[in-house]
Write a structure and sequence with these properties.
60s Ribosomal Protein L30, Chain: A; about 25% strand; two-stranded antiparallel sheet; 4 helices; single chain
Length: about 150
């Protein structure tokens, strides 16, 4: 069965499925991680889910958690706030940016990539995580950037 999974599914999908099957076999359960230091979820999702030694962080946008107001500033301002929000969710689980192993970056305009990259690089200096960056047609609340992450402890 495992051989067929690897042949039929893309490797990333097979890895997630294997993780889930392993978790079921070992009794691991998912745990919701929340913090008031990051924006509250604005829909039926969690800020993060802990599963074993992994933390899956929901996409963050440029919402100030203290005021609950959207930052409509530059790509640099929004990127900084998004990364600070991710940092706060990590901290709620006793983790830091150094433990992020993968990020998915969604940009409204790929022409902002260099500006995003300059800010992003200040948060991930040593052994930066794997990253996918894509331009999308639209993001929640018409922000310029959204970033989700996976961290491992």
């Amino acid at each position: 069965m495992e051989f067929r999974l690897h042949v039929l599914l893309k490797p990333a999908v097979a890895a997630y499925l294997a993780l889930g099957l392993t978790g079921c076999a070992t009794g691991l359960t998912k745990e919701v991680i929340t913090t008031k230091e990051a924006p509250a979820a604005i829909g039926p999702y969690s800020q993060a889910i802990k599963f074993g030694n992994l933390l899956f962080l929901a996409g963050q946008i440029a919402i100030n958690p203290k005021t609950n107001q959207l930052n409509t500033g530059s790509i640099e301002e929004q990127t900084t706030l998004v990364l600070e929000n991710l940092k706060a969710v990590l901290a709620a689980n006793g983790m830091a940016m150094e433990e992020v192993v993968s990020t998915s970056v969604f940009l409204k305009d790929l022409n902002d990539f260099a500006k995003l990259h300059a800010i992003y690089g200040t948060y991930f200096k040593d052994k930066p995580p794997a990253r996918a960056t894509v331009q999308v047609a639209r993001l929640p609340r018409d922000v310029l950037v959204e970033i989700s992450a996976i961290a491992a402890k």
